[in-house]
């Protein structure tokens, strides 16, 4: 459902969209059922002359079934949704797959600084490439990111990746993503961070290994 | 009951200790702040629909102002509208009447509560006009942004905002103590725990939840104030503090707070639907126990606001489980309310329309909460407009829809006159239809990845598309239409206050004790203090000539 609105550009996107659809179908069923019963009752039991209301306490066992049976089904649905949520969360968030490359992301008022590992694929070497508001990653490569903030709480958000992680000053949070689709996408700051909160739009470019190498080359040609 | 002595204007309306006057003071203050909060929403929605344009009645919105507008809209609507109207306003006015006593047990404490609340109201309004402007760090006030003017650029606005919020908490703590003690000690003879109207129970449970959850946040707020003003470093990681500490303290209060306002709203709905369907409340005890369960579980869900905040990922599972579990008592209560309608004789008067709309709309708020309580989908939806739409589908029914249900239902009791029914229905439809047209587009925008608290999306190519911009305009136009329809309400309200048709003591033929008092009830409430003989919802009892059986009538 989400993919109608935002492309799926990472492995996590498919998992999260699947869970979204699962929840939508489950709660959608309950929602429609409850509304249907509610409106049926409103129409059917409208006041008519000569008709009086029934006296039902809802305390008798056969009456309580009206709510205890749906109650049991709600619990079953909750169990299914909890299991789905735990499974997706484990696979997109809790378990980090081995990294092919690492990047560093530093948030500040009001810009994103990205440290790319450079052609050697290693951080903290001479060929690291630092950019502002411009992140380049390779297709089908598992990245670990180290996210931190220089000042206030920001949030690194890439809707196309279904990725969001707060950047907290004083902490380095490690996360991961694996791009699956070429293109350029929005990076947002999703936690209010002051006057320039709307002015932290960075660009994410997902490219092939060749394009990525060429981009590194163009950076060093500029002396960047 | 000794006759009320002659009172001056000041002692009668300003420094009164009468629970009804204090209730109405809270109610009118809440309504006034509702107008303020609505105006703030109007300004920032106009900015979103027409970025950078001159907003009529306001001017051009700057980013700093935009942040202050959304921050104070949220804080005002929750702390200065929902709480004063639903808990303090209705609670004060109704509790002594519904339990059959002449006043709260601590009338002076009650007056102090409103006076502190009044000071907090003045402070929050003043904070919008101080140098640097109002605080703009969101109603959640996360540090380090909120802790230092170096980051938030509001050296006056931030501390004033925090002091105002803290004072508001103090006011409601005093009020809560009063509610709980009064209901424990001052019930009419014969009113056992199971004869108490559900609304009264709900305010009591809400007060207990509020009192138990707000303590840590008051401590947290004082630490934040010290960080702002005295240069302490409780939340400053550079000096060994921790910004996440605030988030835990805030949400440990913040999520129970949702139920603090939800429960009284559900209580209002219970009172209204039983009267207008002439039915006994379905499964009173189940509703009561599910309310207790909701109150207890609400203390174990707070970290679902922090799934992506940098907490240990394993902890998220626990909070997903508790969050989905809390859907069970709430769902059960909703089923009981719907079941109450079964076999009824439903009359769609204005209060009933509001109460039924509450159930229909709150269902949307309830089910969309599941998407956010599930940790994995929350990664995507967190801090998006999906969240905004979700909680407006809970808070709007709570504060506005249940608020109007209560106002239209108890208006004859409060003021001794009827509101106009036709104008009431025009106002109802003119509010409900645009309400859905505001927030359904926001669900779509949120699902499309639109993030919150952004004053212009022009720099986001995936969000600044014509299709999504049209949705923003639709939401804004619907908001303006909805706000215009509120003039119908205020016209009806003021006109009915002075020229409405006179109401008798029990115009709705209801059972609870407040309808045994004259309309409006005098100082001291009841001509003869009532005794209770039965539960509050004995409607349509077989074998009786009339379809209601007031609690205070002997066999």
- The chain-level mean pLDDT of chain B equals 95
Which runs of chain B of at least 5 residues are low in confidence (pLDDT < 50)?
Answer: none
Distance between the termini of chain B: 25 Å
Question: Quick one: overall form of chain A?
Answer: elongated
* Contiguous helical run count of chain A: 3
**Biggest sheet overview of chain B:** none
Q: What is the first-to-last residue Cα distance of chain A?
A: 41 Å
Q: Which structural class do you get from the secondary structure elements of chain B?
A: mainly alpha
How much of the sequence lies in strands of chain B comes to under 5%
Number of helices of chain B: 16
Question: What proportion of the residues of chain A is helical, as a percent range?
Answer: 25-40%
Number of domains of chain A: 2
What is the structural class of chain A?
Answer: alpha+beta
Oligomer: heterodimer
Strand content of chain A: 25-35%
Our Rg estimate of chain B from Cα atoms comes to 23 Å
The biggest sheet of chain A amounts to: 5 strands, mixed
Q: What is the element string of chain A, with H for helices and E for strands?
A: HHEEEEEEEEEEH
Over the alpha carbons, how many angstroms does the gyration radius of chain A reach?
25 Å
What's the arrangement of secondary structure elements?
The complex is a heterodimer of chains A (224) and B (555).
Chain A: H1 11-44, H2 61-94, E1 101-108, E2 111-116, E3 129-132, E4 134-138, E5 143-149, E6 154-158, E7 163-167, E8 173-177, E9 183-189, E10 202-207, H3 209-221
Parallel strand pairs in A: 1-5, 4-10
Antiparallel strand pairs in A: 1-2, 2-3, 5-8, 6-7, 6-9, 9-10
Chain B: H1 9-14, H2 19-49, H3 63-99, H4 107-126, H5 149-152, H6 157-185, H7 198-229, H8 243-277, H9 284-297, H10 313-325, H11 327-341, H12 350-373, H13 375-381, H14 385-415, H15 421-447, H16 466-499
Helix pairs in contact in B: 2-3, 2-4, 2-16, 3-6, 3-7, 3-8, 3-14, 4-6, 6-7, 7-8, 7-9, 8-12, 8-14, 9-11, 11-12, 12-14, 12-15, 14-15, 15-16
């Amino acid at each position: 459902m989400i993919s109608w609105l935002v492309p799926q550009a990472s492995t996590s996107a498919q998992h999260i969209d699947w869970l979204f659809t699962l929840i939508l179908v489950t709660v959608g069923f309950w929602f429609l059922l409850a509304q249907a019963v509610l409106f049926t009752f409103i129409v059917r039991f409208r006041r008519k002359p000569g008709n009086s209301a029934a006296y039902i306490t809802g305390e008798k066992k056969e009456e309580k079934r009206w709510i205890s049976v749906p109650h049991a089904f709600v619990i079953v649905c909750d169990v299914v949704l909890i299991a789905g949520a735990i499974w997706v969360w484990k696979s997109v968030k809790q378990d980090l797959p081995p990294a092919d490359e690492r990047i560093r992301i530093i948030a500040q008022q009001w810009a994103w600084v990205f440290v790319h590992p450079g052609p050697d694929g290693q951080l903290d070497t001479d060929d690291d490439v630092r950019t502002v508001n411009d992140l380049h990653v390779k297709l089908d490569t598992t990245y670990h990111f180290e996210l931190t903030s220089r000042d206030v709480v920001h949030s690194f958000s890439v809707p196309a990746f279904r990725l969001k992680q707060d950047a907290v000053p004083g902490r380095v949070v490690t996360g991961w993503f694996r791009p699956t689709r070429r293109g350029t996408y929005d990076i947002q700051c999703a936690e209010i961070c002051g006057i320039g909160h709307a002015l932290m739009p960075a660009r994410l470019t997902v490219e092939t290994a060749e394009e990525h190498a060429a981009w590194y080359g163009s950076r060093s040609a500029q002396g960047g | 009951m000794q006759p009320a002595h002659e009172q001056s204007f000041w002692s009668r309306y300003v420094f009164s200790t009468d629970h009804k006057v204090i209730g109405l003071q809270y109610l009118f203050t809440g309504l006034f702040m509702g107008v303020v909060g609505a105006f703030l929403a109007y300004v920032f929605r106009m900015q979103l629909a027409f970025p950078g344009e001159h907003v009529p009645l306001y001017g051009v919105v700057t980013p700093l102002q935009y942040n202050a507008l959304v921050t104070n809209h949220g804080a005002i609507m929750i702390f200065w509208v929902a709480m004063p109207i639903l808990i303090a306003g209705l609670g004060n006015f109704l509790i002594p009447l519904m339990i059959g006593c002449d006043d709260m047990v601590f009338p002076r404490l009650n007056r102090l509560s409103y006076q502190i609340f009044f000071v907090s109201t003045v402070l929050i309004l003043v904070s919008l006009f101080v140098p640097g402007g109002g605080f703009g760090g969101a109603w959640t006030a996360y540090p380090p942004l909120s802790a230092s003017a170096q980051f938030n650029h509001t050296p006056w606005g931030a501390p004033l905002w925090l002091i105002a919020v803290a004072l508001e908490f103090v006011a409601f703590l005093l009020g809560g103590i009063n509610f709980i003690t009064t209901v424990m000690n001052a019930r009419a003879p014969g009113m056992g725990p199971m004869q108490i109207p559900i609304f009264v129970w709900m305010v009591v449970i809400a007060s207990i939840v509020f009192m138990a959850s707000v303590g840590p946040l008051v401590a947290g707020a004082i630490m934040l104030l010290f960080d702002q003003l005295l240069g302490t470093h409780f939340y400053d990681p550079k000096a060994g503090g921790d910004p996440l500490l605030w988030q835990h303290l805030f949400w440990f209060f913040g999520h129970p707070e949702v139920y603090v306002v939800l429960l009284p709203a559900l209580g209002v709905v219970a009172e209204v639907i039983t009267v207008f369907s002439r039915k006994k409340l379905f499964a009173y005890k189940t509703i009561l126990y599910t309310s207790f369960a909701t109150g207890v579980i609400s203390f174990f869900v707070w970290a679902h606001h922090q799934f992506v905040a940098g907490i240990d990922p394993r902890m998220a599972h626990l909070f997903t489980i508790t969050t989905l579990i809390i859907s069970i008592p709430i769902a059960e209560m909703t089923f009981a309310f719907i079941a109450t309608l079964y076999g009824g004789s439903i009359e769609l008067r204005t209060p009933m329309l509001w109460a039924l709309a509450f159930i229909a709309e709150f269902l949307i708020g309830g089910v969309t909460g599941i998407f956010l309580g599930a940790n994995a989908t929350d990664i995507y939806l967190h801090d998006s407009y999906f969240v905004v739409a979700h909680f407006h589908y809970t808070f709007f029914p709570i504060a506005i829809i249940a608020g109007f249900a209560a106002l239209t239902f108890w208006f004859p009791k409060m003021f001794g006159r009827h509101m106009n029914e036709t104008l009431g229905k025009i106002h109802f439809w003119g509010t409900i239809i645009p309400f859905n047209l505001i927030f359904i587009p926001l669900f779509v925008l949120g699902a499309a990845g639109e993030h919150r608290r952004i004053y212009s999306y022009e720099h986001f190519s995936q969000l600044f598309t014509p299709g999504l911009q049209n949705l923003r305009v639709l939401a804004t136009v619907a908001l303006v239409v909805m706000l215009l329809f509120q003039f119908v309400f205020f016209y009806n309200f003021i006109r009915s206050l002075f020229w409405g048709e006179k109401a008798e003591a029990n115009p709705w033929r209801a059972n609870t004790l407040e309808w045994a008092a004259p309309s409006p009830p005098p100082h001291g409430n009841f001509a003869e203090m009532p005794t209770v003989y039965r539960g509050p919802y004995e409607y349509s009892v077989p074998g009786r000539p009339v379809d209601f059986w007031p609690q205070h009538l002997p066999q």
